[in-house]
Design goal:
429 residues, alpha+beta, 5-stranded mixed sheet, 38% helix, RNA-binding
RNA sequence: GUGACCGUAGCUCAGUAGGCAGAGCACCAGAUUGUGGCUCUGGAUGUCGCGGGUUCGAGCCCCGUCGGUCACCCCA
């Protein structure tokens, strides 16, 4: 009886699923690099201020979801609750603003920690891949980034993915819009659901996100951010849409799309499967964050990025029946009888592996029957049998484990001279 | 943080009215000398999530707790 279990909301990735992870990682790497993004890896924890200052003090993430602790030097540290802040911190710290702009960075398989009640598609540790492009405000960069995220899912084989798009303005026009939203909602206050009464004070943008039926008519009639953009933001939004149209990407404007992190400006977007109860269904989201670098002590630096959940991505592929690779099987399995034969097996295995074959051998002192069972179960195509006779003749028995069960024995098995065995197996796998 | 359902072997689960802890799969071994798949035979494996209570007796009833699943909140 084991004494420990994986802690709540964390999961082991066992060998049966590891190849699926490998596929996602490979597609992300190759696609990002084709778009000119370079890999970056940041630590999985930062000083708490990195997240508290950027994500926003009033957000759920900072208020109640961060894994924050003091280290032995009494420094407050926080396990990464989202991917962007650490990358921006690294950009500033390493003076990447001196490089040609934009600086385009991606990360794969970054562990993300949030203290939430686990449920389908939501874990206390999950992993994200993501991209960040810093130092450029051109709307073409927004479109390229969205196209990149879209292409990753296309290459993975996901179907029926839609992009939702909105603009929430910037430091110039958003405060006025939020005031307008508050003015609209304040007379309706007594009629709002309890959550929305809190939102009205704490985070008015989220009023638009309410799912309570009683509030839907109010949402429908509420002022929408895209209608109150300043001239610069409106032009930016129009340009992003124009590029997305030119790329023929399947996006839809969702005037109710607001995101949970305070640092977003202008463009915000989410990717989700088309029909999906819309619960924990978003597989990626992001937006522009032109004020974030300043919050972290840098010069004003525009930026845009996204994060995408790998557990959700893999689950989506499974649900959609996208074939994912099985764990790698050995190609050759070596069985040996006796101490001398085992030495021959060990050395043969190494010779075969040196030619890039996947090779397993039987361990322990088990009967040949048991070793053959293991060979069969391993999925290997060929079994090599080594016993006293084979040693004496310097020729090993090679058995075709893929032959039909009713094939005659001499069709399944042959004897190959030890000198040519490596080349023979190389030839026949 | 809120709510619902669920915790029995490695996995999927059964367990009658409260009366000796079970099946299938998987694993291990055997079915005449050194040969897999199909079949047959045998074997090992459990704090019945944990703690308390009721009872002559609890996997089963009661309370608590921890965990899982799902939904809300929020998010990837």
């Amino acid at each position: 009886m084991p004494s420990f279990k994986a802690v709540q909301g964390t999961r082991d990735i066992l060998p049966d699923l590891a190849p699926a992870w490998q596929v996602v990682e490979t597609v992300v790497r190759e696609t990002c690099e084709r778009y000119g993004y370079q890999r970056i890896e940041t630590p999985i924890f930062e000083e708490t201020g990195v997240y508290a200052r950027s994500v926003g003090a009033g957000t759920d993430i900072v208020e109640k979801e961060m894994y924050t602790f003091k280290d032995r030097g009494d420094t407050s540290l926080t396990l990464e609750p989202e991917g962007t802040a650490g990358v921006v911190r690294a950009y500033l710290e390493h003076g990447m603003f001196t490089q040609p702009q934009p600086v385009k960075l991606y990360y794969v398989r970054a562990p993300i920690f949030r203290y939430e009640r686990p449920q389908k598609g939501r874990y206390r540790e999950h992993h994200q891949f993501g991209c960040e492009a810093l130092g450029e405000s051109d709307p073409a960069l927004d479109a390229e980034l969205i196209a990149l995220l879209w292409e990753i899912y296309q290459r993975l084989g996901a179907r029926d993915i839609v992009i939702q798009l909105n603009s929430i303005g910037d430091q110039n026009c958003r405060p006025a819009y939020i005031q307008r939203l508050v003015d609209y909602y304040t007379p309706l206050k007594d009629d709002l659901c309890d959550d929305c009464k809190v939102r009205l004070v704490k985070n008015p943008l989220r009023l638009l996100d309410c799912k309570e039926p009683q509030d839907q008519p109010k949402i429908a009639a509420a002022p929408k951010s895209a209608d109150y953009l300043c001239a610069a933001c409106a032009a930016h939004f129009a340009a992003v849409r124009g590029y997305l149209d030119a790329l023929a990407l399947p996006y839809a404007i969702n005037p109710l799309l607001v995101r949970g992190l305070d640092y977003y400006t202008r463009t915000v977007f989410e990717l989700a499967p088309e029909q999906a109860g819309r619960r924990q269904s978003a597989i990626g989201g992001g937006g522009r964050y032109d004020g974030l670098a300043e919050l972290l002590g840098g010069k004003p630096t525009p930026g845009i990025g996204f994060g995408s959940g790998m557990e959700r991505a893999i689950e989506l592929l499974r649900e959609q029946g996208v074939p994912l690779p099985d764990p790698a099987r050995p190609q050759v399995f070596i069985a040996a009888l006796g101490a001398e034969a085992k030495t021959a097996a060990v050395t043969l295995a190494q010779q075969l592996r040196a030619t890039d074959l996947r090779v397993q051998m039987a361990f322990g002192e088990r009967s040949l029957k048991a070793q053959m069972r293991a060979a069969n179960g391993s999925g290997a195509r060929w079994a090599v049998l080594i016993g006293s006779g084979e040693l004496a003749n310097a020729a090993y028995a090679v058995r075709d484990l893929a032959a039909p069960a009713d094939a005659p024995d001499d069709a399944k098995q042959q004897t190959i001279a030890r000198d040519v065995l490596v080349a023979w197996l190389r030839e026949h796998t």
